[in-house]
């Protein structure tokens, strides 16, 4: 589904990524871990389109996205959350999700609005149903009418996840999703991510979360992939242990 092939990134004399390759299968959750400076953020920036690689390519379901802008990547179904939550504080939780749904318009202009054209009403109903579904998935139904600004960071992060999910992305990129969360919220988030059924690539420092949530893990060190595999194998890999212990 998501494929990264031979990606290298140079920053001046620093090779931040060195021929990184991996594939995330449809519906799979893949984690990216590695010590500080390993290249995780750079990799995320390459996949989401904020950084153009010096070499290599990124493709989604066979379509080459390497030279495609972040906005076009989002249209192609690649959605990203950021370490700093980006929600609308003055909107309720439900309206935050509603605002994230792609509004293609109902056709017919103002006259149709006034007449409540049936097609438009149907679209509106579908949008509201989707909001309810996504809120339920993220455990936000009890908070649907709360203003996002009033929520603690953990819940805001769930709102951000709900917004990213709203129009059914093909691939979700989660950048440090547990940062600022307490232990209970982290467990809640792990359950929500696993329940999605969406292809996910996530960068995360919390090893417990990564081991619990991911189907496969890619380990980076000094810009290179030093291991790829399921959590149990990664946990025991001597090369990975050596990289972390320095
Ligand atoms: N804009 C930049 N200009 C120059 N060097 C950079 C730039 N961004 C990152 N680097 C360097 O590239 C390497 C990889 O950095 P990156 O931030 O991707 O690592 P990381 O794994 O995300 O680290 P951390 O866990 O600390 O966030 C580091 O050596 C870093 O100093």
UniProtKB/TrEMBL annotation:
InterPro entries linked to this entry: AAA+_ATPase (IPR003593), ABC_AA/LPS_Transport (IPR051120), ABC_transporter-like_ATP-bd (IPR003439), BCA_ABC_TP_C (IPR032823), P-loop_NTPase (IPR027417)
ABC transporter domain: residues covered: 2-245
One annotated Gene Ontology cellular component of this protein: plasma membrane
Name listed for the protein in its UniProt record: ABC transporter ATP-binding protein
Any one GO molecular function term: ATP binding
Biological source species: Nonomuraea zeae
Keywords: ATP-binding, Nucleotide-binding, Transport
């Amino acid at each position: 589904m998501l494929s990264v092939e031979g990606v290298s990134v140079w920053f001046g004399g620093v090779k931040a990524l060195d021929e990184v390759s991996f594939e995330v299968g449809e519906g799979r959750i893949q984690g990216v871990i590695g010590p500080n400076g390993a290249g995780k953020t750079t990799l995320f920036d390459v996949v989401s389109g904020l950084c153009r690689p010096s070499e290599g390519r990124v493709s989604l379901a066979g379509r080459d996205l390497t030279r495609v802008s972040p906005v076009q990547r989002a249209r192609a179904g690649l959605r990203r959350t950021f370490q700093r939550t980006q929600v609308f504080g003055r909107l309720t939780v439900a309206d935050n999700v509603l605002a994230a749904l792609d509004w293609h318009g109902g056709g017919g202009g103002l006259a149709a609005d006034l007449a409540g054209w049936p097609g438009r009403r149907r679209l509106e109903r579908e949008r509201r149903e989707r909001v309810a579904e996504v809120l339920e998935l993220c455990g936000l139904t009890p908070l649907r009418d709360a203003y996002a600004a009033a929520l603690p960071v953990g819940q805001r992060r769930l709102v951000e996840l709900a917004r990213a999910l709203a129009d059914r992305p093909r691939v979700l990129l989660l950048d440090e999703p547990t940062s600022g969360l307490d232990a209970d919220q982290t467990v809640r988030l792990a359950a929500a991510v696993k329940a999605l059924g969406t292809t996910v690539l996530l960068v995360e420092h919390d090893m417990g979360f990564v081991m619990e949530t991911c189907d496969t893990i890619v380990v980076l060190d000094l810009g290179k992939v030093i291991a790829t595999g399921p959590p149990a194998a990664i946990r025991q890999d001597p090369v990975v242990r050596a990289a972390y212990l320095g």
